[in-house]
Amino acid sequence: MNIVERVQAILLKPVETWPVIEQESTDAQGIYKNYLIYLAAIPAVAGFIGMSLVGAGAMGMSFRVPIVAGLGNMVVGYVLSLVMIYVLAMITNALAPSFQGEKNQLNALKLIAFGSTAGMVGGVFSLIPMLSVLGLLAALYSIYLVYTGIPVLMKAPKEKAAVYTAVVVVCGIVAGIILGAASALFSGGGPGYMMGGGRPDAGDVSIKLPGTEITLDTAKLEEASKKMEAASKKMEEAQARGDSAAAGQAMNEMMGAALGGKGGKPFAPDVLQGYVPATLAGLSRSTLEARSDNAMGMNFTSVTAEYEKDDRVLEVKVQDIGAVPALAMAMGAWAQSTVNRETQEEVERIYQKDGVSIKEEYRKDGSRAEMA
């Protein structure tokens, strides 16, 4: 499959292209390895360049996401977009009988993967933040692509395709909100990027960025997809029995597999609380919140404290994500870098001290400072 030719065909001739896609002999690993990992990089990298290097501005004001934070956002967004494709494909497959269609997980993945082409290609508009609204128009065209593909791949009657598409879109929005919240939990130099790994049929694919290299093991991706499929079957069986608790547990297993596993058990909140003193830098602690959460197959704990004196406020947050594999990759994106950036208004540094990565960001007027 030639990526450029496939992109052109699905965008310009979707009605003629869907039957070709249906007849193609492939699997989930092939779809990800030969297509999705490249297309999904477009909005991720373009968004990083647009918000961290180009910046957004209006009415004489400008804003840039710090490079390190932007790099973390890019990696997390990239990983979760790949997860989102598979989750939405499973939802699409589960909905098929409700619209007189035929359940076929591979066809559902083909539908969502290739139907998302317009939205992913449209992510290039994020290079210039003012044009990012055009990316939304491209995403709307992806909805049309899914609509034209449903009768072919999911065998639903054409008269049911519109409603089927609408339900898939709503489910996608809900799933996107959940995954967006996960992204916000785990997001923390120099321009440019390079897709490595050689040919699309290579075993692993590497993304080289300033200061780090991320390798996607496609064999493990296939293993994760099988675990997700098994969890999906458990969820369907639980729903058929009316066992909502078992269905929820299966959903957690499915998301845990998508993120590479649950990782290790995080420290208990009371243990983390020991790292938060009663006073700090001459300020007294005014609030303290310790909590543990479980979401989408992940366990994590956090402690947040605020210190106040006069007009000064200091917030300290200690968080343990339990080393979830896919999210640990995002954490390592900044921890393995070295940055020394200074402007007239602010300073950003990343350096190693005694084997520990430290990130400092502060404004020179003393109004705001962060350390990780």
UniProtKB/TrEMBL annotation:
InterPro entries in the record: Yip1_dom
Keyword Transmembrane helix annotated: yes
UniProtKB keywords: Membrane, Transmembrane, Transmembrane helix
Transmembrane intervals: 35-63, 75-96, 108-128, 134-154, 161-186
Mode of membrane association: Multi-pass membrane protein
Subcellular location: Membrane
Annotated Gene Ontology cellular component terms: membrane
Predominant location: membrane
Protein name: Yip1 domain-containing protein
Organism ancestry: Bacteria, Pseudomonadati, Pseudomonadota, Betaproteobacteria, Burkholderiales
